Amino acid sequence: MSAQAAPLPRTRHRRPAWHVATVVETRPETPNAVRLVLDVPTWPGNEAGTHVDVRLTAPDGYQATRSYSVATSDRGRVVLGIEELPDGEVSPFLVREVRAGDKLEIHGPLGSYFLWRPGQSNRPVQLIAGGSGVVPLHAMAAAHAAASDSTLFRLVYSVRTPAHVYFRDELAALAGPSFTVDYVYTRQAPPGWGGTVGRLTRDSLASTTIAPHERPRIFVCGSTRFAETVAAWLLDLGHSARDILTERYGGK
Ligand SMILES: Cc1cc2nc3c(=O)[nH]c(=O)nc-3n(C[C@H](O)[C@H](O)[C@H](O)COP(=O)(O)OP(=O)(O)OC[C@H]3O[C@@H](n4cnc5c(N)ncnc54)[C@H](O)[C@@H]3O)c2cc1C
Predict the structure, then answer these.
(1) With 70 as the cut, is the pLDDT of residue 217 above it?
(2) Are 171 and 147 in contact (CB under 8 A)?
(3) What pLDDT digit, counting tens, does each position of 138-170 carry?
(4) Binding site membership of 251 for ligand 1 (Cβ less than 6 Å)
(5) CATH no. for residue 59?
(6) Residues 213 and 165 in one domain
(7) Is residue 67 within 6 Å of ligand 1 at its C-beta?
């Protein structure tokens, strides 16, 4: 499900376009994901939550395009976090084959509803991520901090193990009175972890998220199954469909 957002305030329009990106750095982000740092001199900037389409072209002309959220962008440096799906067409190439100096075609910035803008609302914000779905939510938390916005932000982040946390250091650095992270470890927790290990449930979601009566704006991102399951629980807990925005990365 994906609810309609309230109309967003007017902002400088950044028209999507094709850009040639040069890979500056590719580094392991988790055991099955990389962080790609791209140099895109023509990048117009982007709002937190937007994505790009990456288009690959084979020597025989065959093309494949997939969407990837922007984790951060700063003066033409665009950072993506890409998880490898073992039977996937595009992600194994991006994770295993791409090297610094390679050129990629990207189209963006894209997306007009799964966005967080500073000053948009003083209602609290609840972010809920599954795995690589944290990428656009990290962008929102970073934008929130950069704007010194005092809106309360909370992130519930479901990952397999501590090693599977994307942007671990960045999230730790962002944490403070107006931004907290609650981890849900589905397979293995860090030493000394006091909580339980296992999948997010309706009850654990209820206990770690902002209560419905506080009317949080909620951004959910992850696999299709994760996003749909969480959105259904949120409705069940009493949140309004108008307040729930989902970004589904695909899969079942
Ligand atoms: C708006 C948007 C933003 C996205 N941002 C990111 C991002 O920041 N990082 C990232 O890693 N991915 C992101 N994705 C997912 C990405 O676009 C691709 O779908 C993913 O990389 C798989 O592509 P592939 O070619 O490797 O797999 P495909 O060849 O397309 O699919 C292979 C198999 O995997 C299944 N599958 C596809 N996607 C998923 C999934 N997400 N989870 C589980 N199974 C899946 C398919 O159903 C199929 O069975 C985003 C998707 C969208 C729509």
Answers:
(1) yes
(2) no
(3) 999 999 999 998 899 999 999 999 999 999 999
(4) yes
(5) 2.40.30.10
(6) yes
(7) yes
